[in-house]
User: Which sequence fits this backbone?
């Protein structure tokens, strides 16, 4: 199990240079959790693709549904004092610190490509490329994601 930030979810769903690494992360750790704000962050990114004409609105909606099948945020609330403390001491946004606090709460890695989070929280955050390259054997293979 990992904490996934919104960018990792985008890399998984929207084909690009980091998509293969994101698929490898999913194969190796098929259980992803994220704080509830991940959904709004994902929709904001997808809205940019729609506005630029990269794909139609219906496709963006389908991608949100696909993400909801992968990412759980059911018990993913963070302690506000912890989030604010992490943000104050690191200089990262409270949005980013929601992911960090969740990873620390469950004692699992936060997989991200965010350089600021990687630098500020080296014992919690790991890059998706690093996780994909060093993670152990897959917990299970998921149909439909290669």
Assistant:
């Amino acid at each position: 199990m990992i904490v996934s930030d919104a960018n990792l979810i985008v890399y998984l769903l929207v084909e690009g240079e980091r998509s293969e690494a994101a698929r490898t992360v999913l194969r190796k750790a098929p259980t992803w959790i994220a704080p509830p704000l991940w959904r709004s962050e994902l929709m904001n990114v997808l809205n940019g693709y729609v506005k630029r004409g990269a794909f139609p609105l219906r496709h963006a909606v389908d991608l949100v549904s696909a993400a909801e099948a992968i990412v759980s945020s059911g018990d993913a609330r963070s302690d506000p004092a912890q989030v604010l403390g992490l943000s104050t001491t690191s200089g990262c946004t409270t949005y980013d610190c929601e992911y960090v606090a969740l990873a620390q709460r469950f004692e699992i890695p936060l997989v991200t490509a965010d350089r600021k989070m990687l630098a500020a929280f080296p014992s919690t955050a790991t890059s998706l490329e690093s996780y994909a390259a060093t993670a152990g054997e897959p917990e299970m293979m998921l149909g439909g994601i290669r």
